[in-house]
Amino acid sequence: MDTLTPDLTAVKNFEYQGTKIFETAQDFLPINGTDYVELYVGNAKQAAHYYKTAFGFQELAYAGLETGLRDRTSYVLVQDKIRLVLTTPLDSQSPIAEHLRQHGDGVKVIALWVDDAVSAFNETVKRGAKPYLQPETLRDENGEIVRSGIHTYGDTVHLFVERTNYKGLFMPGFEAWQTEYRPTPVGLKYIDHMVGNVELGAMNKWSSFYEQVMGFTNLVTFDDKDISTEYTALMSKVMSNGNGRIKFPINEPAIGKKKSQVEEYLDFYNGPGCQHIAVATDDIVFTISEMRRRGVEFLYVPGSYYDTVRERVGIIEEDMEELKRWGIMVDRDEEGYLLQIFTKPVEDRPTLFFEIIQRKGAKSFGKGNFQALFESIEEEQRRRGTL
User: Fold this and answer.
1) Beta bridge partners of 276
2) Measured in Å, how far apart are the chain's first and last C-alpha atoms?
3) Which of 82, 141, 142, 85 is nearest to 108 (CA)?
4) In contact, 239 and 247? CB cutoff 8 Å
5) Which of 246, 244, 269, 120 is nearest to 195 (CA)?
6) How many angstroms separate the CA atoms of 33 and 115, rounded?
7) Which secondary structure element, helix H or strand E, spans residue 200, and what is its range?
8) Rounded CA Rg of the chain
9) Predicted TM-score of the model (pTM)
10) Contact assessment for residue 234 and residue 198, using Cβ atoms and an 8 Å cutoff
11) Could you tell me which of 329, 328, 335, 339 has the C-alpha nearest to residue 362?
12) Which of 258, 297, 298, 336 is the most core-located residue (most Cβ within 10 A)?
């Protein structure tokens, strides 16, 4: 299962601002990487076509009426180490349908690849996690998968997936999915991090949950002085597991003159949930140029942003005019620099969006870009009438 492991060359000596993560993080919940992310969507067939076309995902597996499911249909897409599952309800009274009514399209499951799903469940539940799925074993001719699950913020859940004894495409209950329409990949490699939005006052509760229940460490904290403009602000704590392969920033709104992006999300999602998925690439210029060509919309970065970038980040390998052309932002930390850009929401509700990131040594999250990013988001909010 090496294909699921993010290519993080510094993972065995993972540090941030002098903190050795291996020494501070507990090891009762070893996690190998992100197994898959499952979105509940209104029409999985059409959503799959969008993610294939616009994001370059490839078809992998399918489950639905033809495989014996009566309540839902799921399409599994893959690109390098990323697996995306798109699920839509077939029963209007099902919990999936209720989830969609409340939240619209969005992330339901963040599945984590572990060596022992039973131990992961027992260790987290005894530390206070609310059970979502009791350990179960799924079998077919390709072997067996063990999985279990716990609740996290809002209606989001974590599944623990154990694949040691499985050789199939995805998991029992799914069959190979093949079509004649196969757009080429756009260079997405793995999930870098996933951001959760929670209500005012809940950030510390959920950062403590990840620390105490799952053995994560607080990698870095941003307050309203770090992430703010004249009108809006938010606070964030970045939680990381022991080997640094899983990073979950937790955002909450801060008091401001107007409604922040987190408050807008909470209003339209009807509660806490996953705000964005950050996916890594090794060539962000190629990836973004391809995605734009395929119709993906990105936040607008004012041209004036690039007037001071060289002073702030120093020498970089990329052509600054090329970055400006595509709206790609740059930031630097003690370890190197990163390049990043954010899509607009990928559904009509202003909720879930994606970040495309390329790391050139940097392990931070683009603090130097927060001001320009917030101004861009506020402009989108103004146009929607939600600022």
Assistant:
1) 195, 353
2) 45
3) 85
4) yes
5) 246
6) 11
7) none
8) 20
9) 0.89
10) no
11) 335
12) 298
- Are β-strands 157-162 and 106-114 bridged in parallel, bridged antiparallel, or unpaired? parallel
Q: What is the pLDDT of residue 370?
A: 67
Q: Alpha helices, DSSP H only, in the chain?
A: 21-24, 44-55, 95-103, 117-126, 203-212, 261-269, 284-293, 309-313, 320-326, 370-384
Per-residue CA distances from 51 to 71, 108, 115, 141, 214 (Å): 23, 17, 30, 30, 31
d(CA 176, CA 168): 10
Q: Which residue has the tokens 């499911």?
A: 69
Q: DSSP assignment, residue 73?
A: E
Q: What is the pLDDT of residue 231?
A: 55
Instruction: Check: CB of residue 298 under 8 Å from CB of residue 341.
Output: yes
Question: Each residue of 235-253: b (16+ CB within 10 Å) or e?
Answer: bbbbbbbbbbbbbbbbbbb
Q: How many CA atoms lie within 13 A of 183 on its CB side?
A: 18
pLDDT at 255: 73
